[in-house]
Design goal:
- The radius of gyration is 19 Å and the shape is globular.
- Helix 3 packs parallel to helix 4.
- Strands 1-2-4-5-6-7-8-9 form an eight-stranded parallel β-barrel.
- The N terminus is likely disordered.
- Helices cover 27% and strands 16% of the residues.
- The chain has a single domain, classed as TIM Barrel.
- It has 353 residues and is α/β, with parallel strands linked by helices.
- Helix 11 links the parallel strand 8 and strand 9.
- The longest helix is centred in the middle third of the chain and has 14 residues.
Length: 353
C-alpha cells in the first residue's frame, strides 16, 4: 500500500485534542454506517501473531490489510529491563517490527526489535493513515509480569504512554462521561454503553493484555497477568490516578455465565470488560448475548475451527467472510484468525449481534 503522508513526530496535539472532544457514545439505533457504530457494538477481524516474520515481512504490512486487531507476544527480560517480542525466545527478539521514524522506514527499517518499536510502528502507521482505526492491540505476556524486578504493570503503562502517547484509548477514556464526571469502574461505563463511536476513535489504539502460555504453565507463578493488572487498576482508581493506566486486562478462556467469578477478589472484577477465548467453545452453547447486552468486548480466537471448519490460513474469501458474519451474529467483537492474505475480510466492519 502507498503511504500517503509522512508523520513528523507523534500525532499532532491539536488534532488529538479535537478528537478527544468527539469521544461521544452513540446508540446503535442511530448508526447509519460503520463509523457511526459504537466501538462495543461492531465486529471486526483480527490477525493472530501479527508480529511473526512468517506472517509479514514488516508489521506495517499487516496493518496495511486494514485489520481491526494485531497480536504481539512479549517477554519480560529482567536482566536488560526490555520487553522482548517473540514467540518462544524470552531473551531475544524474533519479529517484524521495524526501526522507523518515518512511514517509509516502516517497510525498510531493520527488524527484530523490542516492544517499544512495535508500538512506534503502530503510531507512525496510524499517523500516515488518519482515517484508519480504531485498532486493537492484543498483548500476550508470555511469562507474565515481573513487578518485583522492575517490570510490572506501572512500567508497562509508562512504555505504552511513551510510545503510543495520546493515541492510546485508556480505561480512563472509557470512564469519562460526555456530560462531565466519570463512571466508577470499567464495568459501569461499559454497561452504560459509554464506548465512543468508531469514527470518534479513528487513529486510536486499545491495548488489552492476557496471561501468557508459559506463565499459565509455570507452577511457581501464582500471580497471573490478569489478576495483577486488575489489582493495578483497582489501586490506581482508589488513589485517583486511573489516568495512568494504559491497558485493559482481559479474562482469558471461554466459560458460561460471568467468567469473572473465577477471581476471588471481588473488587477487581468490575475492571474486566474484555474477554478472550476459543470461538468454537463460545459457539458451543455459551450465551454470548450476555457480553453484547453489557457492551463488553469479546474476542473469539481460532475462528476457522467453528463447525464446519475451514482453512486456518487460506480459506476462500467467501468462506472467511461467511465465518466473520457468523461470529458477528454470535456477538463477537473481534474474529481472530490467520487469514493474512484476505485484506477484504480483515478490513470488515460488521454490526454486532
Amino acid at each position: 500500500m502507498t503511504v500517503r503522508r509522512a508523520l513528523a513526530g507523534t500525532i499532532a496535539t491539536g488534532l488529538l485534542a479535537a478528537a478527544a472532544t468527539a469521544l461521544l457514545p452513540a446508540p446503535v439505533a442511530d448508526a447509519s454506517g460503520p463509523g457511526d457504530l459504537p466501538f462495543g457494538s461492531a465486529t471486526t477481524v483480527g490477525i493472530h501473531n501479527t508480529y511473526d516474520p512468517a506472517a509479514f515481512g514488516r508489521l506495517a504490512q499487516g496493518l496495511d490489510t486494514g485489520t481491526g486487531m494485531i497480536e504481539l507476544d512479549a517477554w519480560t527480560d529482567t536482566v536488560t529491563k526490555e520487553w522482548k517480542v517473540s514467540h518462544s525466545n524470552p531473551l531475544g527478539n524474533a519479529n517484524n517490527c521495524a526501526a522507523a521514524s518515518t512511514p517509509a522506514q516502516l517497510y525498510t527499517g531493520g527488524t527484530n526489535k523490542n516492544l517499544e518499536t512495535c508500538l512506534d510502528d503502530v503510531r507512525i502507521w496510524l499517523g500516515a493513515h488518519p482515517g484508519a482505526g480504531p485498532l486493537v492491540v492484543k498483548l500476550e505476556l508470555k511469562g507474565g509480569f515481573a513487578g518485583n524486578r522492575g517490570m510490572g504493570p506501572a512500567q508497562l503503562d509508562s512504555l505504552i504512554a511513551a510510545h503510543l502517547g495520546p493515541a492510546a484509548f485508556r480505561p480512563a477514556d472509557l470512564l469519562a462521561k460526555p456530560s462531565g464526571g466519570s463512571y466508577a469502574t470499567a464495568d459501569e461505563a461499559a454497561r452504560a454503553g459509554n464506548w465512543p463511536t468508531r469514527a470518534a476513535l479513528a487513529g486510536r489504539v486499545l491495548v488489552y493484555v492476557i496471561p501468557g502460555t508459559f506463565e499459565l504453565g509455570n507452577p511457581f507463578d501464582t500471580l497471573h497477568t490478569d489478576v495483577e493488572y486488575g489489582r493495578h487498576l483497582r489501586d490506581l482508581a482508589a488513589a485517583g490516578r486511573i489516568g495512568d493506566a494504559q491497558v485493559f486486562p482481559a479474562v482469558l478462556g471461554a466459560a458460561a455465565g460471568d467468567p469473572r467469578t473465577q477471581y476471588a477478589e471481588t473488587a477487581i472484577r468490575p475492571w474486566f470488560v474484555v474477554f478472550d477465548g476459543d470461538a468454537a467453545a463460545y459457539t458451543g452453547g455459551i450465551d454470548t448475548s450476555w457480553y453484547d447486552s453489557r457492551h463488553y468486548l469479546l474476542t473469539m480466537t481460532d475462528a476457522h475451527n467453528v463447525a464446519p471448519a475451514i482453512s486456518a490460513t487460506d480459506p476462500t474469501a467467501e468462506q472467511a467472510r461467511a465465518r466473520a458474519e457468523q461470529l458477528a451474529r454470535a456477538h463477537a467483537s473481534i474474529v481472530s484468525s490467520d487469514w493474512r492474505k484476505l485484506a477484504a475480510v480483515q478490513s470488515l466492519v460488521l454490526p454486532r449481534g
